[in-house]
């Protein structure tokens, strides 16, 4: 049975804008694809370990060189990759932290980006091996001006990074819902939230 894999990474709970919008995006996706159920990972509380010397050795070891120690070091990566590859749709909610992704999400990324499992390299070209049909990124930014042409657009290492990563993994379709100015004036935040909810309500996914 396939599913919607949802990853949240804001350490905030009830006040989290990215989680609130992701709740709405999840509902919208389940309405559009009623056969799906959701599998959620809360990366903010799971504290996935950073990859280690043994994890990297395990990633690159040939099957014959996979000692028990290396197998143990890559067991979590195996599990996370299988969970990702079995998903129909990937929903990631993330706040911008210091212009990029929170480290809890980066820890997940470092576990799942893996040669011959989620990407291949033939000496000249990369090929993504993840056949997830689509990803939806729900991104919240404290300041304003990150959108294209904005004063801070060159500092946006969140959306371009995640978009590039999705494409690198082989996920061909990525939808992005973004909200800016979450730490500013409360009225402006409410207006921005309303717009993001409209964007979510207009989300359309193609069956492929
Ligand atoms: C540690 C930390 C770093 C942040 N870095 C940035 C940043 O670089 N740029 C920005 O616009 N907002 C930044 N913010 C603000 C958050 O992106 C913003 O409050 C976001 O809405 C938080 O998402 P959440 O409400 O889901 O927790 C930062 C907030 C924290 C706590």
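Sequence proposed for the structure above (208 residues):
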């Amino acid at each position: 049975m396939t599913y919607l894999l949802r990853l949240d990474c804001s350490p905030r709970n009830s006040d989290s804008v990215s989680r609130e919008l992701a709740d709405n995006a999840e509902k919208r996706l389940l309405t559009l694809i009623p056969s799906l159920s959701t599998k959620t990972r809360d990366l903010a509380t799971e504290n996935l370990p950073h990859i280690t010397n043994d994890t990297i050795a395990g990633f690159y070891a040939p099957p014959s060189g996979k000692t028990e120690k290396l197998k143990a070091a890559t067991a979590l990566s195996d599990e996370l990759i299988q969970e990702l590859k079995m998903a129909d749709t990937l929903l990631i909610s993330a706040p911008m932290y210091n212009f990029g992704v929170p480290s809890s999400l980066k820890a997940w990324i470092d576990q799942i980006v893996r040669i011959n499992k989620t990407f291949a390299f033939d000496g000249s070209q990369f090929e993504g091996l993840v056949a997830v049909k689509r990803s939806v990124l729900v991104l919240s930014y404290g300041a304003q001006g990150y959108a294209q042409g904005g004063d801070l657009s060159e500092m946006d290492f969140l959306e371009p990074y995640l978009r590039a990563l999705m494409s690198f993994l082989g996920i061909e379709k990525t939808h992005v819902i973004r909200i800016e100015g979450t730490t500013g004036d409360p009225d402006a935040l409410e207006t921005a939230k309303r717009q993001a909810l409209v964007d979510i309500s207009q989300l359309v996914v193609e069956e492929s």
